[in-house]
Amino acid sequence: MPRAAEPLLGFARLLRHHAFPIAPEQVSSFMQAVTLLGPRSMADIREAALATLAPSPDRRGEFEAHFRSHFYGDARPSIAGEEDEETRIKDDHGTREENNQTTRQEKGGELSSAIEQLSSRDFQRDDDGLVPFRRKLASALPARRSFRTMRTRSRGALDLRRSLSEIVSADGDIPSPQLRRRQTVPRKLLLLIDISGSMKLHTADYLKLAHATVQGTDRAEIFTLGTRLTRITSALRIRDRDQALARAAALVDDWDGGTRMGPTLLAFLSVPRFSAFARGAAVVILSDALERGDHADLETAIRRLSARAFRLSLATPLAGDPRFQPATVALRAILPDLDDLIDGSSLRSLTDFILSLARPAPAASTIWKRVS
């Protein structure tokens, strides 16, 4: 590549780093346009960039700031809301009954960004083999002892009140004692799905898995994480998957945008009704965990979530690579608080894992220290 072309390529890389959607063809067109214009001045380069890289109108000011920073050496622009914007929370407002129950891998994570970019998604139907998973899910979830009791003929505690009532009704005769035992109920299953740009190749599969989960058990809750937090459980209760995913796509505003995983998880925990969904639940986070910038919020959120959950698991598509190691600063920081760190690159691996949640397994830190 000619030496004079390196600044042009560097500018395209800078924009990609800040989550501007730029295709390789646009970069080639940008260089060709500059060649055709001469260029005679920096204004020609700017016009070529605007015409070929095509920033959206709402990010035009940010584009201009990055252009001056790269070509004129101005200070790096401060993007309003990049780090300090409060995470927005969107609830799908489930039914009163729900409220009462209390609800291809990207190289080096180049698409991971903290900049919010709103978008929409369309999900197409295909045969993914989730029907057996849906049928087995309810009986495969880990169980807990409820505080509610039920009558039993054996292996129960004496129900003194009903036994005395039986004696009175029998005029003092001593009938068989009435016994009761605590019920066993399945634990809640909470799926937190990362829908940022670095996860876009897996989002469709994850949403199909979420729909099968909600259809398979009434103890499931689904949230999407990006630059915003959105609850989509009610939308996924629609039996027809195409309709359910279309409804979910309409609810979520931040498809394929940036990611603020730590602040978004903290926002989830700050809403009492939402954090109650995690209490005693099997929590599965579907994310590459490529947190930009300071990971302190992520570490705090994972620690607090681990304290509430029965089992906290991170399913990352990066683990589908046999060479994968949790080597990033963020992953090393949260690994001690994770019960599982597993392969999230395929529906098969995810369904097999979820169906095995009731079986005990070594902690994630133990497994990955042994592997490394």
From TrEMBL:
<dbReference type="InterPro" id="IPR036465">
    <property type="entry name" value="vWFA_dom_sf"/>
</dbReference>
<dbReference type="InterPro" id="IPR008912">
    <property type="entry name" value="Uncharacterised_CoxE"/>
</dbReference>
<feature type="compositionally biased region" description="Basic and acidic residues">
    <location>
        <begin position="87"/>
        <end position="109"/>
    </location>
</feature>
<feature type="region of interest" description="Disordered">
    <location>
        <begin position="74"/>
        <end position="112"/>
    </location>
</feature>
<dbReference type="InterPro" id="IPR011195">
    <property type="entry name" value="UCP010256"/>
</dbReference>
<protein>
    <submittedName>
        <fullName>VWA domain-containing protein</fullName>
    </submittedName>
</protein>
<dbReference type="Pfam" id="PF05762">
    <property type="entry name" value="VWA_CoxE"/>
</dbReference>
